[in-house]
Automatic annotation (TrEMBL):
Protein name: Acetyl/propionyl-CoA carboxylase subuit alpha
Cross-referenced CDD domains: biotinyl_domain
Keywords in alphabetical order: ATP-binding, Biotin, Ligase, Nucleotide-binding
InterPro entries found in the cross-reference section: ATP-grasp, BC-like_N, Biotin_BS, Biotin_carboxylase_complex, Biotin_carboxylation_dom, Biotin_COase_C, Biotin_lipoyl, CPAse_ATP-bd
Keyword GTP-binding set for record: no
Molecular function, one GO term: biotin carboxylase activity
Domain Lipoyl-binding: 578-659
Ranges for domain Biotin carboxylation: 1-433
Domain of life: Bacteria
Transmembrane segments: none
Organism of origin: Actinoplanes siamensis
Domain ATP-grasp: 109-296
Needed cofactors: biotin
Length: 661
């Protein structure tokens, strides 16, 4: 298996079912990864970056030979679309689980692919390889070779076209082309399987319109915009495109669909795509099994498209922060738990939840790989039931240790426009309200702070070496409230509470704290306006039950060091307890630009002594397969530039010093 994470586990699950032994490869940072533990054999690839491990073709071929493997499954990443790797596998005498190398060479050039498909009378948008020939605007710049949305950008006027094309070429290090930008369109794809005997079977369609950075985060089948007649037209066009390109294997024919029902071919993706799980749910077929069958030279067992059973929706849970330009989040995943999951990595026998993940409790997410942690799929008789089931499970999931896009996914699934099927590729741009955290009300945050403080007190009492049975905060003589200060989602907050002699909550309060007051001098006195009475039904180190005006509320608290992960029906919040005696930290210069996440410096566009404008791009960081720009916050002069292209940096590391004018 020449890939890692979730897709490796998915392929291994079917291999176990059909009696095929499996071999995993792993880098230095993936020694204890779940996909390694689930394989029959595992071969170490020395190094930690993708370029030296999972993308190093010679090392992968050598690992396959050393283990005695007779076939290579490339997963669904870059290598799955690489014609050179496909040829190297077959030249080494092994079976390549994918389309032939010759087909991949054609697909590798999107302009050539579009030309062949257009000749087969499939609708295609015009292509302009010379920017000077663009007849009108807006246009979309796309890489001629590449995956994942890298290098794509919309240009709305001729004045910015030349620079946008040059920038895109630098980003992808290759050729780009332009095509008309069609706003308010849906991204629809038709998953297909084709065997060497000429049979091509489409599996309905998938709606993939909810995207960020031209990458999907919500997928479903069937599409709410596609009726029976349109589905037949799309599937017919997909079959024509597949045969025109000589495609064999598993893939997806991607289209743009406008509100009038017109559609245009985008590309043929020659992999078992990330969203194949929704198709497995509604078709009942194990697509990995069929993919392996075709690779062995077998014929597809079904005569035509299988009927669609119910509705399935999938979300991609990613370690990233949507509120901060989708900034990836690296660190230890202390807890990853989704309730009511019915199965993983296989078609479900009946409607329910399916979780395909590449991580487990204790997994470490780093800067070198895609930020996707898992795919959660809901399969139900109707679209409304699937959306409701999926949103509920996500909201109740415990995702601790890294920032995720969970709240955005829940708000999207519950949004009235999504429920009505009113979605397209601009959905997130039109609905900024979905970026708000679920735990947004002041009262909910206050209750979470109180629950964290009570759980902390219970933990300390339970671990106390003496007098552990005394109520928390007990004194011979009544004194001030017990307090704790947390760094919460909106800044530092102080929570205080008083307990009576029976161990019952006598009063409580929460107030925001000015960061300059964090020396805690003078804090600990209850404000005059205490919050309404609350009864503590029970309080342990990991679960607090509160009675709020006659309504019981269970709050789960997971403490890791000085951090509390608090989950309740209101939402989730992470609270870091601030020490009363913090150690002094070195202060960075006011004009310092520091790394917001660990990664590799990809491009440096300035030199020391250079004058820059406010907002000018200084350098870029590459992390989790995405490029992140670092811009000048104001006009000034680059005083120091301690990094260079290729340098590995950690969060908080100095990137540049800019002396403002």
């Amino acid at each position: 298996m020449a890939d890692r994470g979730e897709i490796a586990r998915r392929v291994f699950a079917t291999c176990r079912l059909v009696g095929i032994e499996t071999v995993a490869v792993y880098s230095d940072v993936d020694t204890d990864a779940p996909h390694v533990n689930e394989a029959d054999y595992a071969v170490h690839l020395e190094g930690s970056t993708p370029a030296t491990t999972y993308l190093e073709q010679h090392a992968l071929i050598a690992a396959a030979k050393r283990s005695g493997a007779n076939a290579v499954h490339p997963g669904n990443g870059v290598l799955a679309e690489d014609p050179d790797f496909a040829a190297a596998v077959t030249d080494a005498g092994m079976i390549w689980v994918g389309p032939p190398a010759a087909t991949l060479r054609t697909l590798h050039r999107k302009t050539e692919t579009k030309k062949l498909v257009a000749e087969a009378k499939v609708p295609v948008l015009p292509t302009f390889t010379d920017p000077a020939t663009v007849p009108g605007f807006p246009v979309l710049i796309k890489p001629d070779a590449g995956v994942g949305g890298t290098g794509m950008r919309v240009v709305r006027d001729a004045a910015t076209l030349a620079e946008a094309v040059a920038s895109a070429r630098r980003e992808v290090d290759g050729d780009v082309f332009c095509e008309p930008y069609v706003p308010n369109v849906r991204h629809i794809e038709v998953p297909i399987l084709a065997d060497a005997m000429g049979a091509v079977v489409p599996f309905g369609e998938r709606e993939c319109s909810v995207q960020r950075r031209y990458q999907k985060i919500v997928e479903e089948t069937p599409s709410p915009a596609v009726d029976v007649a349109l589905r037949e037209d799309l599937c017919r066009a997909a079959i024509v495109a597949v045969r025109a390109l000589g495609f064999v294997g598993a893939g997806a024919v991607e289209f743009l669909l406008d509100s009038d029902g017109d559609f245009w071919f985008l590309e043929l993706t020659p992999t078992l795509q990330t969203d194949h799980a929704v198709t497995e749910c509604t078709s009942g077929y194990d697509l990995v099994r069929l993919q392996l069958l075709v690779a062995e030279g077998g014929s597809l067992p079904m005569p035509g498209p299988p009927p669609i059973r119910g509705h399935a929706i999938e979300v991609r849970i990613c370690a990233e922060d949507p509120a901060y330009a989708w900034l990836p989040s690296a660190g230890t995943l202390h807890r990853f738990a989704v309730p009511d999951v019915a199965g993983s990595f296989r078609p479900l026998p009946q409607p329910g939840l399916r979780l395909d993940s590449g991580v487990a409790d204790g997994s470490v997410t780093g800067p070198h790989h895609d930020p996707m942690l898992a795919k959660l799929v809901a399969w139900a008789p109707s679209r409304q039931e699937a959306a409701r089931m999926l949103a509920s499970a996500l909201a109740r999931a415990q995702l601790h240790g890294v920032v995720t896009n969970r709240d955005l996914l829940v708000r999207t699934l519950r949004h009235h426009s999504f429920r009505a099927g009113d979605i397209d590729t601009g959905f997130l741009d039109r609905h900024p309200e979905v970026f708000a955290p679920l735990l947004s009300s002041v009262d909910a945050v206050r209750l979470s702070c109180l629950a964290s403080a009570l759980a902390g007190a219970a933990d300390r009492r339970a671990s106390a070496p003496v007098l552990s049975t005394l109520p928390s905060g007990w004194r011979n003589v009544p004194s001030g409230s017990q307090t704790a200060v947390y760094d919460g989602p909106t800044g530092p907050v102080e929570v205080g509470y008083r307990m009576n002699r029976h161990g019952e909550l006598a009063g409580w309060w929460v107030r925001s704290v000015d960061p300059e007051e964090l020396d805690l001098a003078g804090l600990g006195q209850a404000p005059v306006d205490e919050h309404p009475p609350i009864m503590v039904v029970s309080a342990s180190r990991d679960r607090v039950v509160l009675d709020v005006q006659g309504i019981r509320l269970a709050v789960l608290v997971h403490r890791v060091g000085d951090v509390s992960y608090v989950d309740s029906p209101e939402g989730s919040v992470t609270l870091r307890e601030i020490s009363r005696f913090p150690l002094p930290a070195p202060e960075a210069a006011e004009s310092s630009l520091i790394a917001p996440l660990p990664g590799a410096v990809r491009r440096v566009l300035v030199v020391p002594g250079q004058r820059v404008r406010a907002g000018e791009l200084l350098l870029t960081l590459e992390a989790m397969k995405l490029e992140h720009p670092v811009h000048a916050p104001s006009a000034g002069v680059v005083a120091s530039l301690p990094v260079h292209p290729g340098a590995e940096v950690d969060t908080g590391e100095l990137l540049a010093v800019l002396d403002p004018e």
